[in-house]
Amino acid sequence: MDVIVTNRGVYGEFESLSSKSDFLRLLLCSLFSCEPTKIVFNNDCDDIKFGINAAKSLGITVLNDDNGLTFYNQKNKKDYAEINCGESGALLRFLMPCANNFCKTVKFTGNSSLASRPIKGFIELLSRHGLKFSNNKLPFEVSGKLKSGDYYISGDVSSQFVSGLLFILPVLEGDSKIIVTSKLESEKYVDLTIKRLLDFGIKIIKEGKEILIPGGQNYKSAGEYKAEGDWSYAAALMCVGASCGEVFVKGLDLKSVQPDKRIMDIFKDIGVDVECRKDGILVKKSVFNGIVTDLSGCPDLFPVLAALLSCAESESTFYGTKRLIYKESNRLYSVSTVLNELGANVEYSEHSVKINPVKKLKGGQVSSFNDHRVVMAATVAAKMCERDVKIMGADCVKKSALGFLEVIDSCTRSD
Fold it and tell me: How many angstroms separate the CA atoms of 372 and 368, rounded?
């Protein structure tokens, strides 16, 4: 689907969608719980759908329940299951160490972009601890039984490997330890995992680069949990507001440990007109400066921030961008290409991105690169263009934010 985004202003009130990251963590915890668990959420995106289907494939009963779903663990271990993870790196990496707790043999499949994302090192680690893999890349089958012990893992590829281990290690016999051998990128996503584990009664001890996990624990559901509002989705809406109008975003937790909540600090640093109110966050069209900052802890902010800062008052430099090449697209290339085709001046290397600001972008036709975050970046950029922007293949935005373009369009009007 191709979509035309105009440069007209956006004025309106938006309810943040549920965080797919938080939903998937709640889902994993519910799989291990003996008690039924209801998850309340308002996001029907692809990643969440694939997560729900994965639970069903593993023998979990899933029932519609008013504004959410209730998950029942039937406790009957299946012989075989096939799980399609779509494009969800989180779902794949969470389930790789966990799925054989529910099924003797599990086949994992996914889309081509997921197959290109790095998992070989994780497969080698899990193989040393009891699991057996038919291949070192998708598709593959997993069998065997994971054992407790010491897990040495690099932290500079994906924090999702650490989170995947954190879900399964507490239920194994014997204590375990995760030792992160390099800087843990996106550490706050691990903190989000630990928060949800604590919500299910699991004890985790995090001490610097070591995480201690006592074995023989049981997940205990409180019955109902609400997935947090998504700060990644909200950041896109807020960047639209800062560029061209006035948006009010509701449904966000200001105490959340989601890493993309950092958008608030960045907005304050660059001078965006942002106001926290009791029931939401108000962002108004602003004149803003550039910034020099490290995004290694919140890489998903890069696309929309790069778009916004293309028309800042001063240049910007982002560091900690190496892992952007491992996303749904190589975002160093895809985001820079889209913005430059629209008239921006973006330069990138393996470890940094420099944005030389321009007064106004031009507009035109760009590719989505089949990446939901690129669609969001192009939407933000379109609001600062002299003419309309046509985004080719824009329907890929449904991976994380079904209806994003429609809600933007519904609140678009001339200034």
Answer: 7
The two tokens of residue 189 are 């996503």
Query: pLDDT, tens digit, for every residue of 227-247?
Result: 999 999 999 999 999 999 999
CB 10 within 8 A of CB 247: yes
pLDDT, tens only, 54-69: 999 999 999 998 899 9
Residue 306, SS3? helix
Q: What is the pTM of this model?
A: 0.95
Catalytic pick from 46, 47, 300, 371? 300
* C-alpha–C-alpha distance, residues 77 and 58, integer Å: 8
189, 93 in Cβ contact below 8 A? no
Contact 30, 386 (CB under 8 A): no
* In contact, 90 and 139? CB cutoff 8 Å: no
Cβ atoms of 329 and 366 within 8 Å: the answer is: no
**3 state SS of 63:** strand
Q: Is 300 a catalytic residue?
A: yes
| In contact, 237 and 377? CB cutoff 8 Å | no
